[in-house]
């Protein structure tokens, strides 16, 4: 979901951006107007996340999925192994792609609970010889979220933050590398943010293509080739919107309240159930199943008729999923809860 205010601003500026005589999508990425948009984008992200000066901020293409392969290519630095936590569908994909590049040690897996838990920290197996430890801070499909950052792992921490970046406060200096596709919480698809500590940059394998080599892209302000200019602009508008809301700390409180209301409605019902352990429920993605699966189609059709869209769970897990990212207003959650109660009453 995009904030409506952002869509309105983009609409107003679509044909001509700030007396430039052009749309942003017509600008040269080397021109001074776009240079301004790019500089604001990075400055606003640095401000919102309090990114320390010793971190590079890159805006790349290829989605978070491309990073599954390019993280090991950039970070192995002569090592042969990386550690991964397996907490759901996105972890599994990251593990699979890394496995083609290096040896992967799965430090812990929640597969045996069908990805409804996060394995206890005391049982993680971490190899000090590994280049890094990778985890997925929010499992978008399974609705599982780490409520705190793993500590004392002894390895640079690499995190796929695609679906909870900017939804809660993180201490960037806890991480070696943060990456996120923008399409969940930062804007439209087409941009991948990589925030990487200086000492991890500059060791890419010879096989790494230049556009995915962090050192090359850092040297070129992420413009080694033509960036997704219009998408950068839209992400920039979302960041400005977030700043106007009061920043991450404010939106986090709103997200806590939104999620709590929805989980409470689910827990208090006899028709709906969320399968995730209460200690690791996601604030962003709330999956739920109906006690009677044969009602799924009727539920989705009635929801659609009530203006509640995109509630079908991911095809790999079925059921329903309410994604309540930053841009989802309180009224959206209220409308969903009211609809669910009414559907339960009539079914
Ligand atoms: C959506 C998502 C991805 C994939 O992002 P793409 O931009 O489609 O490659 C990866 N990880 C997580 C956690 C996601 O939610």
Q: Can you put this structure into words, describing what you see?
A:
There is one protein chain. The chain is an alpha/beta fold. Helix 2 packs across helix 6 and helix 3 packs across helix 4. It is 35% helix and 16% strand. The site of pyridoxal-5'-phosphate (PLP) has 11 residues, from helix 3.
Roughly how many Å apart are the termini? 29 Å
Helix run count: 9
Mean pLDDT: 97
How much β-strand is present in the residues? 15-25%
Assign the CATH class of the largest domain. Answer: Alpha Beta
The fourth-level CATH homologous superfamily of the largest domain is Type I PLP-dependent aspartate aminotransferase-like (Major domain)
Rg is: 21 Å
CATH architecture descriptor text of the largest domain: 3-Layer(aba) Sandwich
Name the structural class.
alpha/beta
**How do the SSEs run, as a string of H and E?**
HHEHEHEEEEEEEHHHEEHEH
Produce the secondary structure layout.
Layout: H1 4-13, H2 32-49, E1 55-60, H3 63-75, E2 81-86, H4 89-99, E3 103-109, E4 133-136, E5 138-139, E6 144-145, E7 157-160, E8 177-181, E9 192-197, H5 214-219, H6 229-245, H7 248-267, E10 272-273, E11 285-290, H8 296-305, E12 320-323, H9 330-346
Parallel strand pairs: 2-3, 2-4, 4-7, 7-8
Antiparallel strand pairs: 1-9, 5-6, 8-9, 10-11, 11-12
Helix pairs in contact: 1-6, 2-6, 3-4, 7-9
The structure holds pyridoxal-5'-phosphate.
Pyridoxal-5'-phosphate is lined by residues 63-65, 90, 136, 140, 160, 162-163, 181, 184.
